[in-house]
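User: Assemble these into one structure.

Assistant: Restating your components, then the assembled model:
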Amino acid sequence: MSATLIESNAVGVVFEPLEVVTAELAAAPVVAPTKPAAALELVEEMLKRPAVVDARLRQQAQLPRLVPQMLAIALAGYTVFCLAAALTLTLAPVWPPGVPRGDSLLRTWLALLAAYDIGILAAIGICLPSFYFYALLAGVRITMLETVAHALKGHAVAAVVLVGLVPVYLAITLGLQVFHAPEMWFQAFDYLLLTLPFQTGVAGAWSLYRGFIPLCDTMAEHFAQRRHCFLRRLLLSWTACSTVITPLVIYTIWLALAGSAT
Amino acid sequence: MAFAETSLLYLAIGAAVGVAVYLRREHDAPLLAGVATALGAVFFWPLYLPLLLAPPDAAAASPETSSNESHSADDELTAAIAQVETELDTALAGLGGWAESALAKEQGRIAELRAAWNAQAERIRQIDRLLSEIAAAEQPDDGAGSATPLAERLERSRAARQRNFDRLARVRAQAHDDLLGTLAWVRELVSMIHLARFTGAPASRAEELVAQIAAAVAGVSEASWSDVDAFDSDAALADSQELTRSL
């Protein structure tokens, strides 16, 4: 199996490596269950068997069910985070400068909730056409619906990780309260907390990458060899683009709903 | 346009999408789930729009999309596996109250067997897809007939490639035969379970039959390895070395 033909010789004749032929045989495919999963089962699969979730996304018939489920998981995760963030910000002795604040507690909380919940997911809507275009540009045979599902899966994974990290941050801020830490510490941790969805977004981006790159097998075999790296770069570009746009959308919505920034 | 106007426009479009999503919901879906999905569509309509624009049966409507499974969701292997699984389920359900312990002991291996069938079927589909792509991409040989060293080298390379693909086709045929053979064997055993059950055979007979079904997973695994052996790596290596020397 280790036999490799020379890829290009002096006269420029290209021979395809035998690995190209045998790689298909070597890869052990993960078979997606045909039975649709409930949202909680999907969360479990994301944590324990991410390859099964990726395999599910490759089943067109499951997509109409998976898209709302992924959205619900992402929304639930971000909502938990928002509640924790609102609580932390409210309990802190000082409101961090530059962070929008409403004229009432309710408005402040609702603005924060809407900003993150709607902002993060609305940013996908903004970036989605470019994601789809990038995929087509790389030569992946994909539908818009699959693109949506992959993007949402990335956010759902990030949201699940976020829910896992929120208690840690809550414990830290509680510790700051108990030990009467200086205001500067509160502000630093508040800013860190507000960027937490972006920190966990790395897990989402990795999940997106892991699910998306195998789509290279939808390209023609000789084509996939050349375009694999290109697709990887395009994916990285899209992630960077999304990372820039998302905070802008969040801040705009937050500022508009809260009324003013301190 | 101010934030309020933009939001209003956004929500107006969202309301239309929400209604459309609600109307297109599955008929057997609970009302609450339908309403929740429609509400989600109002706020996140850009994510639901592709769902609306996709054909009702996405699997049937996009046969050339990325899904390996969706390519051949209804192919003969899927149908054969589904049939055997149904028969097996029926037979195993009949063990209740008669030979439950056999089922409890072998449940894990039977699950493995099902996974192995599907993996084998998927592997066959992958090889089919690969071979059809190769056949479609195969260029006519321009240097055929000429006796230049380059043409000879190209011809040798083409022949080596062809031999490898022929081997791959044999691997595929072997895997296909093995899978169908295993399925047929399991069907036979299933019929024997029914026979044993209705002829008053002892529970030990059922245990023996279930154990044989579970043991079929080894057959599928062995078939996989024998497929790899059939792909004679030494011959491929020899081909490539010969070609490298000629270059």
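Chain A touches chain B through 58 residues (CB under 8 Å).
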